[in-house]
Amino acid sequence: MKSNRRYHHKRKFSIFYYFYIPLIMLFFYLPIIIIIIFSFNEGTSLVRWTNFSFHWYEELFKDRIIMEAVQTTVIVALLATAISTVIGTFGAIGIATYKRKRATNLILSINNLPLITPDIVTAVALSVLFAGFSMKSGFQTMLLAHIAFCTPYVIISVYPKMASMDKNLIEAAMDLGATSRSAVFKVIIPELLPSILSGAIMAFTMSFDDFIISYFVGGNTMNISTYIYASFKKAKPTVNALMTIIFLVLMVLVFLSTLLSMKSKGESMKRRKTHEKK
After folding, report:
1. DSSP per-residue letters across 190-249
2. Alpha carbon of 193 to those of 114, 157, 200, 266: distances in Å?
3. What is the CATH number of domain 63-277?
4. What is the DSSP letter of 1?
5. How many Cα neighbours within 13 Å face the side chain of 220?
6. Each residue's pLDDT tens digit, 174-206
7. What span, in angstroms and rounded, lies between the C-alpha atoms of 80 and 151?
8. Which sequence spans correspond to the domains of the chain?
């Protein structure tokens, strides 16, 4: 009986592994693969292949409007990433070192709210907030909005590492004459560096990829996502080339973020095993 159950269990798992997972992956990535393929199509058709060509990539870099949108996107993403990483890192350190567990759990719950709140709600709320302060929609409001929704991602990336850090390291640094400030920058920050970089990459990816919030608070300032939304109605082939580049860039960033996260978890596991042996 047990062998039959194991056989059926393995069979179900093999069906799931060899059929359902490839089907789901195909459903998700087939449209992207089609876009990548037709970005090298010489003709203007998005469904009929003619000849292989880099023509639309050349046209992409010649288009002034697209280049301005790319420049805005990169500047906003870099600034939002830098600012949100600083705020999120020190916020995570403060939350992790706070001694009241109930207050800590409450703060973490509040921090997680923007992650589960629909983007449309966040976008409308931020646009109303900026209007209440008589701020004209544009680059400034877009940057502030991106900082607001990127910071929680940095906190959830850095906080677990800070919470699991061996507090003896900080106490040892203080005993050796380090001030609170030097202990943060010479002990805590180096230990948190993989998690900080992972959070920064995540923040950059979220900022680079954002559309709904940018659309509501950006005004006449156009980034890549709002440009694609405006131009996709006209079916410009250069959009395929642009989306191919975006996909490759984001794929590399996600890969780096995953590697850093795995490295951080591996180091934590090693330290825990070493501590248990002692």
Report:
1. HHHHHHHHHHHHHHHHHHHH--HHHHHH-TT---HHHHHHHHGGGT-HHHHHHHHHHHHH
2. 24, 11, 10, 14
3. 1.10.3720.10
4. -
5. 1
6. 777 777 777 778 888 888 888 898 899 889 989
7. 9
8. 63-277
